[in-house]
Amino acid sequence: MRLQLSFFVIVSSASVYAELLGGTQVFSGLTIGIPTVFSGLTLLVTTRIDGGGYKLPMHIALGASVLGNMLYALAYRAQFLYLILIGRMVTGVGFISFMYSKRYCSDPRIVGVRRRTTLASWLVVGQGLGFTAGPFLGGALFKMGLKNRVFNGLTSPGWIMAIVFVLAWAASAVMFEEVPRRMTGSQDHAIELSPTTSSSHPVQPTPTLRSLGWQQWGVIACMCWYAMTCFFILGAWEANLPIFTATPVAEGGSGMGYSPYNAGNFLALGGLVTLPFLLLNVRFARRFQDRTILAFGSSLGTIGLLLTLILIKTHHVTFGSLIVCWVLIALGFNLASTCTLSLLSKQLPDAWNGRVSIAIQYSNYTGRVTGAVLGGAGVKIGMARYIGLQLGVVGVGLVMYLTLWKSLKAKTG
């Protein structure tokens, strides 16, 4: 949750912060999305030195999160626009924890096949809490508007998150226990290399990349595409809504005249409505196949996108209509994101858990950074084009999904 909180706490006020220091709306979108680029680069190093464990990357991530949030907060005092970006880059190193938390929840040394979707669903509940509390906290701090040049409505999110990560660092140093280096004997390590593989057959030696058939490669590509799609659309909306709701109709916006405080509350309200449904998903995820949850979630999100396009074309954007669209999109694509890693981890050998986690996380990162930049530029390029591009991305995923329907079958749980 704290990672999501750190990612989203700046969303409601990032555009104001950037513009105050001489930046543009596109720059504000870049500050939201840029951490994922540096997180991805850092993973190239940490995955080579972590020895399959979690303690070393955890300390790297927490230290970077403290420093990055402090640098973000100091940009106002220094009156240096690019210190915002530098701070977010350093914070991005801390976001390697996104990958490690996912890898932990699918690590065959501690988690069986039939528990992975459930644990992924819990991760998404934390994700929902973060993108609910983050914009609300950021907007509330902006509204307080403390006039101090060091601690004020724009810099306080950075200072507060730095304190949160210091406390988390101290707690983790005391409480965290490293995973065992070898498999425990109690887990179910059966793998599914194809829909026809029977659990009664002996497990075959770990296959090489060359031994995978086109269907297995198709499943990998499909899950990576959906992982990218979910965070591309969520990231675009989170970056765009504060701008769209603040911009007059004549300039391509909604004409709602929202301040960062109003926009933060709007984003948080959508997240709050989704939380009960995400909790229900934890309860019932074990009863449904991952491919079914994926289809249901992406369908909900697509309905939200289509409704938004209709509202924009007919000029009927209101608080009520827009919040319905945001809830459908937030709920749908958060639900869909629970299945990508868990499904792929069930389709491929346990020994590939690290590779699978990296593939999905890089896809998530690609979606986050490109979505945030698109969201920042959404009003400028035209909201109809902005929504149309998202529908196109979903459409590609739909073609892949329908083509690979039979190959996407995996154990429930």
Structure, explained:
- The chain has 413 residues and is an all-alpha fold.
- The chain has a single domain, classed as MFS general substrate transporter like domains (Growth Hormone, Chain: A, Up-down Bundle), CATH 1.20.1250.20.
- The protein is built from 16 helices and no strands.
- α7 packs across α15 and α10 packs parallel to α15.
- The longest helix is centred in the middle third of the chain and has 31 residues.
- The protein is globular, with a radius of gyration of 21 Å.
- About 5% of the residues have low confidence.
Low-confidence stretches: 185-204
* Sheet with the most strands, sense and barrel status: none
Describe the oligomeric state of these chains in a short phrase. single chain
Total of domains: 1
Overall form: globular
Question: What structural category do the secondary elements indicate?
Answer: mainly alpha
Supply the number of helical segments. 16
**What's the N-to-C terminus distance?**
22 Å
Q: In the CATH hierarchy, what is the class?
A: Mainly Alpha
